[in-house]
Amino acid sequence: ALPEQVTIKEVGPRDGLQNESVEVLTADKIAWIDQLSRTGLSYIEFSSFVHPKWIPQLKDAKQVALGIDRNPDITYAALVPNQKGLEGALETGVDEVSVFMSASETHNKKNINKSIEETYPVLKPVIEEAKNAGKTVRGYVSTVFGCPYEGDISAEQVIDVSSRLFDLGIDELSLGDTIGVANPLQVDRTLTEIRSQLPFDQLAMHFHNTRGMALANVLVSLEHGITTFDASVGGLGGCPYAKGATGNLATDDLIHMLHEMNIQTGVDLEKLTEAGLFIQSKLDKYLPSHQMQMCTKE
Ligand code: HMG
Ligand code: MG
């Protein structure tokens, strides 16, 4: 049987905006996140504390963190690559931090300028200090279903990097289809292979919708019992260090499917759609989700 309830982690303000070329004003980000905070979402990844030269779109992470109206029912999380990023995040009183690395050597190097082996000693103290500060820590593994530089990634590679992160103390792991290449059979195969190797109830799935397969991949994940999914409203997003990575799975399309299937999310689709239309109005493009296109057409 499929799960009756699913947790959606809204990553649009981070994964979405990091790949938009139009500069969104800090005040507009704050207004948008406040709007998202009133939709019933329980988790918002609001920004990242990375180098502003690498991701200039999110250089205002601190102002955003301090400007938003924090809803006590929501976990506000930020991405941090190292101790400097963690310091910034802790200064703003985030609820959770997310560390990230890749199952692919080349993507890891291009994204965070380190080999996979060099990354663990960087993340170890970050995870420790975050936990000492009373924060939960999420881990991301990228390129789980394929890498733009290396092609196929084996389940062994994914299990190896993921178990190292669990050993370092992460509370949850999000498996990223960074460039949206996963197909449903592959998701089925990978989840079957990793089931006995990783703490399965601490896994989340993070699909990008580059080839329109994200919802199909969600369905297979639901059949495996996964109940946490990352998504970005309107399908905003991508990864600037992975060529061809377009938007995330759209939160609005995901919610529509789940609600139609009688799976609860706690999110009000109408309010979420309004938040999507708001951020769309600040970009010079139409957002790709079906829900946004339906609501935008005259
Ligand atoms: P680096 O150049 O190797 O850093 O970059 P470094 O440690 O050698 O330091 C160089 C300079 O950067 C120093 O300044 C540091 O202080 C500064 P200087 O002394 O030269 O003046 N610095 C920082 N400044 C601000 N914030 C920081 C920070 N750290 C060092 N946190 C680094 C390494 C990791 C910093 C860089 O590569 C970086 O910022 N990368 C970010 C990449 C990124 O954000 N990618 C997108 C997110 S991942 C993703 O989208 C995938 C995901 O969605 C899942 C999926 O879809 O698969 C999560
Ligand atoms: Mg992503």
Automatic annotation (TrEMBL):
GO terms for molecular function: hydroxymethylglutaryl-CoA lyase activity; metal ion binding. PROSITE patterns: PYR_CT. InterPro entries: Aldolase_TIM, HMGL, PYR_CT. The keyword Lyase applies. Gene3D superfamilies: Aldolase class I (3.20.20.70). One of its GO terms (biological process) is ketone body biosynthetic process. Residues 6-273 form the Pyruvate carboxyltransferase domain. The keyword Metal-binding applies. Keywords: Lyase, Metal-binding. Pfam families: HMGL-like. Belongs to the HMG-CoA lyase family. This is Hydroxymethylglutaryl-CoA lyase.
